[in-house]
Amino acid sequence: MKKSILSGCISISLLAAFTVAAVPSEQTKLLESVESKVIEWRRDFHKNPELSNREIRTAGIVAKHLKNLGLEVETDIAYTGVVAILRGAKSGPTVMLRADMDALPVTEKVDLPFKSTKKTNYRGVDVGIMHACGHDTHVAMLMGAAEVLAGMKEQLNGNVMFVFQPAEEGAPEGEEGGAELMLKQGIFKRYKPDVAFGLHITSRLASGVIGYRSGPFMASADRFEITVHGEQTHGSTPWNGVDPIASAAQIVNGINLIVSRQINITKEPAIVSFGKISGGVRNNIIPDKVEMVGTIRNFDMDNRQQIFEKIKTTATHIALSSGAKAEVDIYKGYPVTVNNPDLTAQMLPSLEKAAGKENVTVMPKITGAEDFSFYALEVPGLFVFLGGTPHDKDAKKAASNHSPYFFADESSFKTGTATLTQLTLDYMAQAK
User: Fold this and answer.
1) How far apart are CA 337 and CA 213, in angstroms?
2) What is the average pLDDT across 65-78?
3) Helix, strand, coil % in the chain, rounded to nearest 5
4) Is 243 a residue whose pLDDT tops 70?
């Protein structure tokens, strides 16, 4: 294990339980003291999951903990969000750390002592509620990091902004939510951070491994809806009407050519996928309309806008050529999650301190999306992944996030807590 000198003193290696090299002894002790608490909090949140914009119990526990630490706490932001400020004894930058709190409408199938048995009716379907994406672990680890950093208040060269965010998985229909709403309600105006750090657990990496990528990391995610209007007629005489099904089929073919023929994918990759097509009720009746919905994933904001425009042009013109009419609506979702290249390079040594150099790896681009992207549009951001699959299991075969079989190994939480802490302390130290 490597040794180095920090703050003029010879550092000691962190105990194996935290796999952090070269950190001050006080930080080591504080990290050790919160490990069991982080696990206990996580188990409680896992057993009591709450859906987006409904994280009332979770937010209450978080706020109480932060107040007990002596932080300045603001609640009820974007419905249930919590923001807390830890003011260090010395002047310096404000570092933002973010955790998301919401669960998913998924029935848990993992046999755990703290398995969720909560149920709900989601869009007319009776279903369970589960932390199938690991947000329970994010909340617990950030609560642990808050306790560690609060214990080092006199050594902090700046302030820490803790953001516990609702609705990362998307707000309920008819509501706003998530990072976008928190920003809309002014959290960056009241507590403007200099930098933002986020962490997400994943089953695709082994426990304790940190995955990162400089530049575009996670895709933007947008939804489109196309309604093709025709003229209903009998299936035996299609010339007496306008067939929206035939038109819709040509629209699918045309839109599938946008990425392969009209977008410069040597710049960044993109995906357009149809998820649902519906129209008609009988085999011998040509309907008057067809409805189609799909998703757009992309890693470049300029390409994103081009795809929007080309979907509208392609659909409307193809429909017009067959005598039909196409209405196209595109709903912007999450932007591209971009890790600031300079910040990523600057903080890489911190990731290696927290996890061990051998446990830090560059990940490929991810076509999933994250609303941490909204924060990273405002200030330099760094978003990393934390492995959560036990070492005796094959991470490539592990159930993915959002699966009813998703499982997060508790031994990884110590690395996650250490990572959030190390990023904060090192950024402050380097900004002096």
Assistant:
1) 10
2) 98
3) 35, 30, 35
4) yes
Tokens 């009407």, residue?
241
The answer to whether 391 and 212 are in contact (CB under 8 A) is no
Query: Domain check: are 212 and 232 in the same one?
Result: no
What are residue 280's phi and psi, to 5 degrees? 90, 160
Q: Catalytic residue positions? A: 334, 410
Give the model confidence (pLDDT) of 270-287 as tens digits. 999 999 999 999 999 999
10-47 as b/e: b if 16+ CB within 10 A? ebebbeeebbbbbbbeebbebbeebbeebbebbbbbbb
Q: Are residues 360 and 251 in the same domain?
A: no
Q: What is the mean predicted confidence (pLDDT) over 245-257?
A: 98
Supply the pTM of this predicted model: 0.91
pLDDT at residue 82, rounded to an integer? 98
Among 334, 366, 394, the domain-final residue is 334
Domain encompassing residue 233: 220-334
Strand-pair category, 270-278 with 360-362: unpaired
| Angle between helix 56-68 and helix 25-47 axes, rounded to 10 deg | 160
Single out the residue in 334, 366, 389 at which a domain terminates. 334
Considering the domain architecture, whether residues 367 and 315 belong to the same structural domain is answered as: no
Cross-strand pairs, 23: 12
Instruction: For residue 79, report the phi and psi dihedrals to the nearest 5 degrees.
Output: 80, -75
Q: Are residues 167 and 247 both part of a single domain?
A: no
Which distant-in-sequence residues (6+ apart) come within 8 Å of 143 by Cβ? 37, 38, 41, 62, 65, 66
Contact 328, 316 (CB under 8 A): yes
pLDDT 10s digits, 122-173:
989 999 999 999 999 999 999 999 999 999 999 999 999 999 999 999 999 9
CATH number, domain with residue 353: 3.40.630.10
Local structure of residue 399 (DSSP, 8 states) = P
Q: What are the φ and ψ backbone dihedral angles of 177, each rounded to 5 degrees? A: 180, 180
Residue 251: predicted pLDDT? 98
User: Which residues fall within 8 angstroms of residue 345, CB to CB, at 6 or more apart?
Assistant: 214
Helix (H) or strand (E) holding 221: strand 220-229
**Domain tally for the chain?**
2
* Packed helices 135-151 and 25-47: angle between N→C axes, nearest 10 degrees: 150
